[in-house]
């Protein structure tokens, strides 16, 4: 889902 | 975490440390655009809203704190430090950077992955980061003098997003459902903006001459 993955990058 | 992303984060870290080192040791911010630094501070502020609510890892939290701390201290140095601020050349740093923010905000409201405040703010930070370097590049064209540390700072800053592009390619092929067009397009645009600077940086490095940007 969109929320999780992209937020683990700085 | 993959090697490209680690290299990207380390290059990004190196860029802010080079800048802090320059300003702190020689007490000068000659050739540095305050506006670009203010935009980066806003980028980190709007991107790391979930700093205390969404724990990813120790590394992630520490790096976020370093980027927030360094970007705000650089802005403080150039604005407030009694010695450094005298070397700030505001007549050359004339880019209307707040005009840059509105298109990013409007775009983030219409093009995002989820219409929530946090996601729109995060998307805004992605768009803003892509163009935050513009005031600095304009200032360089104007002043034409690039001291080594400033040149290294901009080179590292451009290289970090290039490493991130490799990271996105790697993750696209190794993780299913890893698709983030918004970040990818903005990241490519951001790296392209450094394109001609890279060209002249390598020319000067290859010919071992002082870095000169054409008028």
Q: What is the string of helix and strand elements of chain A?
A: H
Alpha carbon gyration radius of chain B = 17 Å
The average pLDDT of chain B is 94
Principal-axis shape of chain B? globular
- How many helices of chain B? The count is 9
Q: What does this 3D model show about the protein?
A:
The complex is a heterodimer of chains A (10) and B (215). Chain A is mainly alpha-helical and 10 residues long. Helix content of chain A is 50%, strand content 0%. Chain A is elongated and about 20 Å long. Chain A starts with a helix and ends with a helix. By secondary structure, chain B is an all-alpha fold. Chain B has one domain. Chain B has nine helices and no strands. In chain B, helix 2 packs antiparallel against helix 5. Chain B starts with a helix and ends in a 9-residue tail after the last helix. At the A-B interface, helix 1 of A face helix 1 and helix 3 of B. Chain B: Pfam families: ER_lumen_recept. Chain B: It is found in: Endoplasmic reticulum membrane. Chain B: It is a multi-pass membrane protein. Chain B: One of its GO terms (molecular function) is ER retention sequence binding. Chain B: Keywords: Endoplasmic reticulum, ER-Golgi transport, Membrane, Protein transport, Receptor, Transmembrane, Transmembrane helix, Transport.
Secondary structure topology:
The complex is a heterodimer of chains A (10) and B (215).
Chain A: H1 2-6
Chain B: H1 3-26, H2 34-47, H3 58-80, H4 97-110, H5 117-131, H6 134-143, H7 148-174, H8 181-193, H9 195-206
Notable traits:
heterodimer; A: 10 residues; mainly alpha; 50% helix; 0% strand; disordered N terminus; B: 215 residues; 9 helices; ER-Golgi transport (chain B); ER retention sequence binding (chain B)
């Amino acid at each position: 889902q969109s929320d999780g993955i992209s937020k683990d990058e700085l | 975490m993959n090697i490209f992303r680690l290299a990207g984060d380390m290059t990004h870290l190196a860029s802010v440390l080079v800048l802090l080192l320059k300003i702190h040791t020689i007490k000068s911010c000659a050739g540095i655009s305050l506006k670009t630094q203010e935009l980066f501070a806003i980028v980190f502020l709007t991107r790391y809203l979930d700093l205390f609510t969404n724990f990813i890892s120790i590394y992630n939290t520490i790096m976020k704190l370093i980027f927030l701390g360094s970007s705000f201290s650089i802005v403080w140095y150039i604005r407030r430090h009694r010695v450094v601020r005298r070397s700030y050349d505001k007549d050359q740093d004339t880019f209307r950077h707040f005009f840059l923010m509105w298109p990013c905000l409007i775009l983030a409201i219409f093009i995002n992955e989820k219409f929530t405040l946090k996601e729109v703010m995060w998307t805004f930070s992605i768009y803003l980061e892509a163009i935050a370097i513009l005031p600095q590049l304009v200032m360089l064209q104007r002043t034409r003098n690039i001291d080594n540390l400033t040149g290294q700072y901009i080179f590292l800053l451009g290289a970090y997003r290039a490493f991130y592009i490799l990271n996105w390619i790697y993750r696209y092929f190794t993780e299913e459902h890893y698709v983030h067009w918004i970040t990818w397009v903005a990241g490519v645009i951001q790296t392209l903006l450094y394109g001609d600077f890279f060209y002249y940086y390598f020319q000067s490095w290859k010919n071992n001459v002082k870095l000169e940007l054409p008028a």
